[in-house]
Amino acid sequence: MDFLTILQILDSTVRLATPLLLACLAGLWSERAGIFDIGLEGKMLIAAFFAAAIAYTSGLVWVGLLAGIAASIVLALLHGLASITFRGNQLISGVAINFLAAGLAVVIAQTWFAQGGRTPQLSSDARFANIELPGAATRIRDIAQQGPLGQTYSELISGHSILVYLALACVPLTWWLLYRTRFGLRLRAVGENPAAVDTAGISVVGLRFAAVLIAGVLCGIAGAYLSTALSSGFVKDMSAGRGFIALAALIFAKWRPWYALSACLLFGFFDAVGNRYQNIQLGEFIVPVQFMQALPYILVVIVLAGLVGKAIPPRAGGEPYVKER
Amino acid sequence: MTDAPAIELRGISKAFGPVQANKDIAMSVARGTIHGIVGENGAGKSTLMSILYGFYKADRGEIFINGKATAIPDSQAAIRAGIGMVHQHFKLVENFTVVENVILGAEDGAMLRPSIAKARRLLTELSEEYGLKVDPDAIIEDLSVGHQQRVEILKQLYRHADILILDEPTGVLTPSEADQLFLILERLRAEGKTIILITHKLREIMEITDTVSVMRRGEMTNTVKTADTSPAALAEMMVGRKVLLQVDKTQAQPGEVVLSVRDLRVTRGGVTRLKGVSFDIRRGEILGIAGVAGNGQTELLEVLGGMIAASGGSVSLFGQPLDITGTAANGQTRRARGIGHVPEDRQTEGLIMPFEAWENVAFGYHFDPKYNSGPLMDNAAIRADCADKMARYDVRPPNPRLPARNFSGGNQQKIVVAREMDRAPDLLLVGQPTRGVDIGAIEFIHKQIIALRDQGKAILLVSVELDEIMGLSDRIAVMFDGQIMGERLPQDTDQNALGLLMAGVTEGAA
Asked: Do A193 and B47 touch (CB under 8 A)?
């Protein structure tokens, strides 16, 4: 395996890790504030649909992105209403949101486009183009001519959509907000002990809604990335369990932003390897392609079961706050 | 202005549905004094303080702070009015540092760094000024309960609280921690702060307060100068009748040995909790185990009660070995051998809180033929038995269908006591029988324990309350660090001598 092949796998790792990372950070914001969110998947899916649909009809990908974010926020608010305002069970609310999104996206797609629950193929204007950084070679023949440093720059660092860079920028931003600002301190406190926040005279409900909203925005970007950057259009169930893998990554990362980046890159790497090596020959035996496609999910299970030490979730996670004396 | 009382309440009333929690309460607290509020559980103390701190809104009445009528619709308003509250259960974020907890909600700006730097400086000043030494960068969960309480007080001082409300502050403290707290409170008073102390421990009221108000059934019945009253008088005002603070008991008549413990060892979570404990208890005798919580008393009760396994040693009951390896040891086999167990924590070990009283009364004795008819439980019989026990053990309200969590602490404890003591076990294990229980119920439970002893039963009493140990025990063993430091007769010792033993100091060293 030459250096360029490794770079190509890493390049595809970054692309595949991006939606995981955005969803994982969404989960991080929500759960740090004490709201479990297994509806990441559904929010991503609904955002993927609306982003593709609106990008197609308007021809403007940025409008599509905003539509995706808006759709995701609507579901996030629904989750907030159920689990914060009405103190419902957060897991059940999340499951409901996943079902709602899966059904709604397909039904609306069929009504609008009549293409069997998908959106039409997006033209290149209605997609996020890859950004070539200055000085980067674009053609594979030119890249092959470069030295290792140049290859790394051209193949791995350059040539991603703006959303990839945005997702990466969200990691330090999340860290800074959580650990360096008043808002972050209060948000973390509300996920650990809402009573402490309440007696300090700060609104528990307000903080938790803020967290759920941020999660909505991030899931919206993740969904839009799936349908307008990673592929060109929406198809049924295109989130393919990424919302749940993101939750797994969140546990693996123990609810910390930089670790979330590493975890998502690891899971993205599994995905990239599974995609690239579809038919591996081991002597006489050919590893079936289905196995290679399932491999990332199997590896996630192994990582979660074997490698995660003691992961302590935010202590007030999953519990509606009821004010007492 | 300066002569106006720090707090004045006029005509405060608050009802929860049909229950009148506060009835037309008037109270006045002079600046720079410590004012005690006593009353039984459910007398309305907590409700009143919650109104003052903005958790509840009073139905009627006015609050004057420093002579000025002040509306307190929420906690933020209370903080602005200079009122700080230290809750019984601390409101701290356990995995945050001290300084983070102190600034939470009182940050100076959107960025944390300057707030934290300033808070660290101020904390150092405050801790020197008031003798509240705490490391600003320590994580809360690594601190002792006493230090966590200091953080709560510092939190209020950081918010410039002039009026401090402390709700049952010594309930979780060791005697020496409580003494330190009182020194801090005296210091605060000397600096001109006003303190309201809610407690049910009359000794603390007598020791530190200037004035004391008594609440009973939602009303403030009396306010007196502490110097002009006595514990007995206060207890009478609280309960509405004469109360015996000292237990009346005759000389013990010890008989044959019931329980014999030899070199008992317990290791839990890699830590040795019991390091070879030996003692005997005879018929008609109460052995009291004194000690600061966490020195092995819990493990001792749990091994004897069949809840955990010992790692070594032997226990016998009437000369017959008792299984302590855990294979045949459980609450049920213990009860079959005539051992009753009132566990230390009634809410997690003694009762199932959402279950109704009659169900709780049957636990551990649910195979008793009188509770069963054929393969089915005879629910009517259990309810009838529960109603009978409730009447005899004065459980209020005497309703077998009420879930355990709806009873007050004292009445919950009476349910456990009724279940465990009514069958007159040969050996009764009792842990913290009166923790969080009001005075009337304490008197009742103590009488029951003495009555059982006088029937010729053996009793092992574990308590962190020295008063209780001194008042009930016929012999006192002091535990420290998993060992028995020494045995004393209550008439030959005093609280100071026991306190030294509890701290691990033996005569030779002292």
From this structure: no
